[in-house]
Amino acid sequence: MGSGPGEHLHVEGDTVLHALPPHVKLVGLVAFVLGVVAVPSHAHRVLAALLALAVGLVLLTRVPARHVLPRLAVETPFAVFAVVLPFVAVGPRVALGPVSVSQAGLTAAVALLLKGTTGVLAAVTFAVTTRPRDLVRALQHLRLPDPLVLIASFMVRYVDVVADQLRRMRVARASRGFSARSVRAWPVLAAGTGALFIRSYERGERVHLAMVSRGWSGRLPVTAPLEASPRDWLLGLTPALVAAGCAVAATMAT
Amino acid sequence: MRGGGDNGHVTTPVLDLRGVAYAYPGGHQALFGVDLHVHPGERVALLGPNGAGKTTLVLHLNGVLRPGHGSVTVSGLPVTEENLLEVRRRVGIVFQDPDDQLFMPTVRDDVAFGPANLGLRGAELDARVHEALAAVGVADLADRAPHHLSFGQRRRVAIATVLAMRPEILVLDEPSSNLDPASRRELADILRTLEVTILMVTHDLPYAVELCERAVVLSEGSVVADGPTRELLADAALMARHRLELPVGFSI
């Protein structure tokens, strides 16, 4: 698993991060992000240090940069907001080159960029080192309610199937000379979306039938329980502990 | 009506349907008193035009649907609420679209799903998964994700998911559909090696001749013929009456 066209994020490897049990990584990731968010916005140096830590984690995965960098695009809306922020925020103003910007806005913008990038990098680190299947197992192990685990599991399984269906519908439309150029095309697109929804719903019914036929009784069986040693936990929580320490220290310093 | 396929058998039938009638909640009556017996070791083809009630019948075999009238018995066990899990272990249904059947993130998880529901864990479960995948010749695919497999591979894994429950009868819904000729032949070779009773719902009449010595024709909700597959398919009048056709150029 991991080399196919549909496996967008996970990259096979044998680094320390790949080897950590998925539930440890998941807890570590969430705790790390919470720690980073808790650092006061004006502590730019601390945030920069945590960003460097996140970069270090990405490097530790030994995943090529061309695989990681495009994933950062997810941050774009926040980055745009961060760029706009100094110009629209109110309060005392400072000169930044030729323009004058809001002091508070600038501080918030830099903090937003640093925290956002750190969070995304940490999430990417998690995603490239964890198989989707293991993510589902981790959620199950962490006692997430079964329906939510199943939804996550089905999403992993069927996202490509649905995407493929969508692609076929688009090809079928295009083959009959359709192109979505104006508002008049919207009803067609809406009908297509509706059809896709109905098809997915019907597939859901058929999948349920197949599950019931194989003895499904409402409980997801745990077939391969996850285990983690104290060492795994220590390792997995190290970034989070560093971030929490930074947050506490930076808060005390103010 | 031809001679029933159960002549000469003294064993308990794996499947014993008596006067099964069913109407959908909307009022559409799909089955009108179906009688069907399948004995251990038989391979039976269930033939019939679209809308004949084949799928409805299949869903009665493991208790997903319950007959309005009549009874369904699996190896002597009546299909009732308290027997449901055991009935579903005994009757393994392989649905037509493998994407519906394979719903777990990896092949291994998917094949383990059924036996795990039966309470198997650990080494016993692993052995069962391996045995089922090996039986259909795809033991090397255990750690792959279902959506990365070819259609033929997915169909085989779908069969493995059911074999892992060690069923007494394998019910296949259109096993040859969407397969290229090579995969179709490979699947036939595999099905022949399985030591399990098979009921095969199909439109693919040459496939039925190839694999099943006995055929049952279902038309408009009742069994209209039951006998040796070759004889049934050679009966031109019967075939025409129930919209069954062999491919052009194919002769029995």
UniProtKB/TrEMBL annotation, chain A:
Keywords from the named record: Cell membrane, Membrane, Transmembrane, Transmembrane helix
Pfam families: CbiQ (PF02361)
Gene Ontology BP, a term: cobalt ion transport
Bilayer-crossing regions: 20-39, 46-65, 77-96, 108-127
Source taxon at top rank: Bacteria
GO cellular component: ATP-binding cassette (ABC) transporter complex
Record-given protein name: Cobalt ECF transporter T component CbiQ
InterPro entries (UniProt xref): ABC/ECF_trnsptr_transmembrane, ECF_CbiQ, ECF_transporter_component
CDD domains noted in UniProt: EcfT
Subcellular location: Cell membrane
